[in-house]
Amino acid sequence: MKSVSRVFDPPSGHWVGDGFPVRSLFSYHEHTDAISPFLLLDFAGPYEFAPAQQPRGVGVHPHRGIETVTIVYHGEVSHQDSSGGGGTIGPGDVQWMTAGGGILHQEFHSPTFTARGGVLQMVQLWVNLPAASKMTPAGYQSILANQMPHIDLADDAGTLRLIGGQFGDHQGPAHTFSPLCVADAKLNAGKEVRLAVPAGWNTQVVVLEGHLLVGGQRVGPAQVINFERAGEDIALHPESDAMVLLLAGQPIQEPVVGYGPFVMNTREEIMQAIRDFESGKFGRMEA
Q1: Is residue 145 within 8 Å of 184, Cβ to Cβ?
Q2: pTM
Q3: Are 212 and 186 in contact (CB under 8 A)?
Q4: Which of 79, 83, 115, 285 is the most exposed place for a label (fewest CB within 10 A)?
């Protein structure tokens, strides 16, 4: 059994563009070794937007050396990037973007959501790429809610939805570059939930809704439970019906050097990323 290492409390929020009020629940700037292969998690909302004429969001910006995973729970998000990827996702859908050697992209509320307004709730996860895959070609995966395996947990404890990587004998639809598991789960109140995670992996459980008892600690929305690497499963005790995000993966034991939207292994690679972006090597966005 993995024991609790620490609980990350939610920080104060900030805006990304004018469309995403987020709290960065963890970041490689502080917890690199404990969260690898993940780098950052932004939890947006829940926040109610009034109807508008112009879509809110964040305009064209670059990335290199990472993947971004956007999971929508309420609202709609439209994406466009220089690899030719793009589309709109709604509740339960996922966008998995591989920046690789370089990509430009933008994210806005969908035209429909902009016009009608409503509650936005979503997360965006940054996943690190191993050094050998940092310069892989950019790409985009749109994963709809009905394309993911839904796994019933033992003793009617809830349902887990596998987005990427492996959970037991199940494989998620997202292509990944290192061994990991990204899944969310709806948990039933009063049940003990046991989730199998390989020994040696870093494991985080992000509470999206509800309250849990974990390792004798009570945790609630926007808190992150970080587990020790030793042991092969985790135990959760929902006090109420709850929604959680499970992030587990084999650590990438390589240097992490980041500068804004670029995450590489050396300062020299960061400087090269800046030069390549400024010289137009990340492609072009279609009008």
Answers
A1: no
A2: 0.96
A3: no
A4: 115
